[in-house]
Specification:
Length: 271
């Protein structure tokens, strides 16, 4: 699977979950999934990211079998409605990723733990040759917000973390051109740390790998603005532009049309 990132792309979030932090993104049944996929396609999504395990702070544990049931329902719908569209699977479990690849063919593996929650993940990605999104997080979704202490400034910590993880990925046989980095906005980070990391995003982009930015409707926006996730679209658009300005190549979003418009305007501005 090849992903053209010569221009920034928009990744639509498809949460096949009952408990994602933004209620408007939940698609727990087949009808809701189909509606969401149709809307994302019509709005111009370049990729769709299917998740069956909510990674919001304090999220409930989901069994591997239940996660697979949700993921397979979502991916099957995308494949049926848009067979050529790249699909990303948001999972830290190599078993779920493997079953998805075996059933549906090549997908992007989007791992919130950068291989740290499942020691078999790197081997699977290397073996299958699929694109791999590695995200920065400490702990697990259940514990991450208690792990926001950093010895140095957070941007330096995240950049150094990815230097080490990239070395581990390459040593495991993952091809350099398949690696995408995600700074993990909202994962084991306070609101202030998120903004500090955003201000230094160009440093992560400077490592030479495509960067995925996922801050759509997150708490760094709605808590700063004193609103709800449902009221945080304008803030998501504003910070999405800043991510593009600093070099991000993928915006992972709930609101596809607005993000696609942002990319179009950014490209016009840049040219």
């Amino acid at each position: 699977m090849e992903i053209d990132l010569s221009t920034p792309r928009v990744m639509a979030i498809l949460n096949v979950t009952p408990d994602s932090f933004y209620a408007g993104s939940r698609t727990p049944d087949a009808a809701a999934i189909e509606t969401r996929v149709r809307e994302a396609l019509e709005a111009g999504a370049s990729l769709i990211d299917v998740g069956g395990y909510s990674s919001r702070p304090g999220a409930d544990e989901v069994s591997p079998e239940e996660e697979w049931r949700r993921v397979s329902l979502g991916v099957e719908t995308v494949r049926r409605m848009a067979p050529e569209l790249p699909v990303s699977v948001d999972t830290f479990r190599s078993g779920v990723a493997r079953r998805t690849i075996e059933r549906f063919g090549a997908v992007i593996v989007n791992d919130i733990s950068a291989g740290e929650l499942d020691p078999e993940m790197f081997a699977l990605v290397a073996e299958s040759g699929v694109p791999y999104v590695a995200m920065h997080m400490k702990g697990t979704p259940q514990t991450m917000q208690s792990q926001t202490d950093y010895r140095r400034d957070i941007t330096t910590e995240v950049v150094d973390y990815f230097r080490r993880r990239v070395d581990a990925m390459l040593a495991a046989g993952i091809r350099r051109e398949r690696i995408i980095l995600d700074p993990g906005f909202g994962f084991a980070k306070t609101a202030e740390q998120n903004f500090e990391l955003l201000a230094g995003l160009h440093r992560l982009c400077g490592l030479g790998f495509p960067v995925l930015a996922g801050l759509s409707r997150k708490s760094m926006i709605y808590r700063t603005l004193g609103c709800t996730p449902a009221e945080s679209l304008a803030g998501s658009v504003a910070l999405g532009w800043e991510c593009l300005r600093q070099g991000a190549r993928i915006l992972r979003v709930h609101d596809v049309r607005e993000a696609v418009d942002t990319v179009k305007l950014f490209n016009a501005y840049r040219s």
